[in-house]
Amino acid sequence: MELWPGAWMVVLLLFLLLLFVLPTLWFCSPSAKYFFKMAFYNGWILFLAVLAIPVCAVRGRNVENMKILRLMLLHIKYLYGIRVEVRGAHHFPPSQPYVVVSNHQSSLDLLGMMEVLPGRCVPIAKRELLWAGSAGLACWLAGVIFIDRKRTGDAISVMSEVAQTLLTQDVRVWVFPEGTRNHNGSMLPFKRGAFHLAVQAQVPIVPIVMSSYQDFYCKKERRFTSGLLFGIFNF
Ligand SMILES: CCCCCCCCCCCCCCC(=O)SCCNC(=O)CCNC(=O)[C@H](O)C(C)(C)COP(=O)(O)OP(=O)(O)OC[C@H]1O[C@@H](n2cnc3c(N)ncnc32)[C@H](O)[C@@H]1OP(=O)(O)O
Ligand SMILES: CCCCCCCC/C=C\CCCCCCCC(=O)OC[C@@H](O)COP(=O)(O)O
């Protein structure tokens, strides 16, 4: 089969694009660099999730699968030149159910979260994440608890079931009480669910704060360089 003559030109142009334009954008445009880095971040997680799914599926939906996801995600900070420093981790209760509450700046929180995630600990996530392709399925297999934030009644029922699970199945829960991402340097008013959960299950609340990403990441300015992230317990 013969190629249409213009096709060679298209192939050559695409090749030149890959060879020159993309690296030029990477080095000369911080915005392009931001987009490439974020695209790779999401793409890489989706790819890792594809690998994780068959391994996790052996156990079925099980909080122990979160260990597998954690191990698979720990290296990402090196790819992005982000150093994660944890302070006060000794405040973590040794072995009992509890509710972790933490600030939520962006999807990069996954890096700090995976650094300190205790055993048998599952995050509460918005229901939409369940439909994030392979990542959604991997989260489901690892026991992530999904809530529909638009249906408060349903979310409360799910949280009440979680309160039972905390005690009967020795599970910890990670909640972002702001209920949404917030990258303004301050914190939004807390939603009440995490605190109802702790009272219903009569378990302690463990506060964790991740330092501001402003030095190396800003969505508004399309800026993403390398930097240092602090995770601080019981501040
Ligand atoms: C290979 C790798 C693959 C990928 C691996 C990835 C793994 C990691 C995944 C991590 C995912 C993380 C995702 C993060 C998110 O999605 S954050 C968004 C979801 N999280 C939340 O929304 C936080 C929890 N939300 C709440 O707790 C809310 O309170 C909620 C229950 C949803 C209700 O919200 P809302 O109505 O908007 O506001 P209020 O809090 O004001 O509540 C309204 C009234 O209801 C009462 N209430 C709340 N909860 C309860 C409860 N459990 N029991 C009884 N009553 C409750 C509350 O008191 C309010 O009433 P009053 O005003 O006090 O009378
Ligand atoms: C701690 C962050 C967990 C990140 C999970 C990464 C999975 C990303 C892989 C690719 C799928 C793309 C889907 C993007 C989902 C991003 C997860 C996230 O950060 O959810 C935000 C949620 O909280 C609050 O949502 P809003 O800020 O209200 O909209």
Automatic annotation (TrEMBL):
It catalyses: 1-eicosanoyl-sn-glycero-3-phosphate + (9Z)-octadecenoyl-CoA = 1-eicosanoyl-2-(9Z)-octadecenoyl-sn-glycero-3-phosphate + CoA; 1-(9Z-octadecenoyl)-sn-glycero-3-phosphate + (9Z)-octadecenoyl-CoA = 1,2-di-(9Z-octadecenoyl)-sn-glycero-3-phosphate + CoA; 1-hexadecanoyl-sn-glycero-3-phosphate + (9Z)-octadecenoyl-CoA = 1-hexadecanoyl-2-(9Z-octadecenoyl)-sn-glycero-3-phosphate + CoA; 1-(9Z-octadecenoyl)-sn-glycero-3-phosphate + (9Z,12Z)-octadecadienoyl-CoA = 1-(9Z)-octadecenoyl-2-(9Z,12Z)-octadecadienoyl-sn-glycero-3-phosphate + CoA. Its EC number is 2.3.1.51. The HXXXXD motif is essential for acyltransferase activity and may constitute the binding site for the phosphate moiety of the glycerol-3-phosphate. This is 1-acyl-sn-glycerol-3-phosphate acyltransferase. It holds the Pfam family Acyltransferase. It comes from Pteropus vampyrus. GO terms for cellular component: endoplasmic reticulum; membrane. It is an enzyme of class 2 (transferase). Pathway: Phospholipid metabolism; CDP-diacylglycerol biosynthesis; CDP-diacylglycerol from sn-glycerol 3-phosphate: step 2/3.
